[in-house]
Amino acid sequence: MKRVRCGAKDDLLQGVPGIGPVVSRVLVSELPELGTLSNKRIASLVGVAPMSRDSGRMSGTRSIAGGRGAFGGLYMAILSAVRYNEPIRAFYQKRRKAGKAIKVAQVAAMRKPSSSLMP
Fold first, then answer.
1. Which pTM was predicted?
2. Considering only CA atoms, which of 84, 79, 46 is closest in space to residue 65?
């Protein structure tokens, strides 16, 4: 099987702890905007940014919505990173000790590397 090089973005992404070759290529293919948008916009495109559905005086909890195919790749990467990557594990455990649900803590951990993917 022939290896395909994805370029400089791929090399930069693989330098981020918890991002391997598969997740890196998913991110490069699904998010060509990487490196050109702000952290908040990238988090929104990935689907890990909190969205509000407030109307008038009604205010509820925030939920994540939208996103592209990169969400699945980041989700699988964060499952591994929570177990083996010490900084992400500490971040995740801090959220769990604060009383956050498992999925909420995982999405918060997903947002952390996605906001620092590109300079």
1. 0.70
2. 46
